[in-house]
Amino acid sequence: MGWISPEKAKVQNYSISCNALILTKIVVVGTGSFGKNHVRVLNELGALGGAIDRNEETARKYGELYNVPWSSSVDGFDYSTIDGAIIATPTTTHAGIAKSLISKGINYLLVEKPFVATVDEAVGLADFGKDRDAKFMVGFIERFNQAVMLVKEYLEQNKVGRPIIMTALRIRRWPDRPIDLGVIKDAAIHDVDIARFVLKGDPISIYARAGSLTRSTNEDHATIIMSFEQDCWAILEANWITPSKSRKLTLTGFLGYVEADLVDQEVTLKNGEGSFTKFMEWKEPLVLELKHFIESISSRQKPTPDERDAIANLAIAEAALMSNKMNRALDFKDFLGNLRTQNLQDYL
Length: 348
Fold this sequence. Notes:
Blueprint: H1 6-11, H2 19-23, E1 26-29, H3 35-44, E2 48-52, H4 56-66, E3 70-71, E4 84-87, H5 94-103, E5 108-112, H6 119-131, E6 135-139, H7 146-156, E7 163-171, H8 183-199, E8 205-211, E9 221-228, E10 232-239, E11 246-253, E12 256-261, E13 266-271, E14 274-279, H9 285-299, H10 307-326, E15 330-331, H11 332-338
């Protein structure tokens, strides 16, 4: 999802009615790139408590624009009125910032996907948070996309029967933001999460092919094939090469077929009863995601998706990278068994 200006956002009428949202205050750490969208939406929800960015000019800009406290460092901010934090900095900085915030008494953190860079680091951060009663939410925003939710609903309502194959396409030109991971952990991991979310489980086996055709030392294109229970397959394609942007999802079952455009949120169901396209009023997934985070804070509940989802998704991504390196399919349980991450069994 790209940048939406504050002017356009006001036109979209978010129908904010929950008083609990207004009472909760959240600080955003990292207000460039996608972080500026967190700042905008939190302000619309009445829940923006501050802005932190290592670029002092950027932090000041959003602090003055929205009349909230700001700082150019995590240590220089006053958290006395803050209920939660969003971390939207480059992935390799997430763990250090999260631990610092938890140590300062912030117990609700929304950490942008993929949470951290590796499974080892993810388990370490999860353990750190668990010991201090911190509650994590991870920014797998597609779970809050109406199109994804409707595909899942059709499957649960038996509109397509037992699933046979799910496909996901996520392509675009190279992102205009800092990239410290390859396309699998940075982009395809969204569709890994969708597969686990819609198909309700982890894969049995994983096979992937990936490579770099542009300027990156990491992979910039990848195809991942995962097998699930009952002979169901998921095929995920992602790249930073194709000039046009597209995010699509299909699900084929014994009784029907559903296709969804995740950008336009248009979903078409085809089965024995005919072809039906459901046109929904477009809703920004980030608004729904942040409302869930805010409501979780106000009700003192654990939000979802959480660190367990992040660890599972990262493990699948690392299995895909290993599969590509070895050029063979990997049994996911065997792969997990070969990881030497302490306490991994507590989360998977």
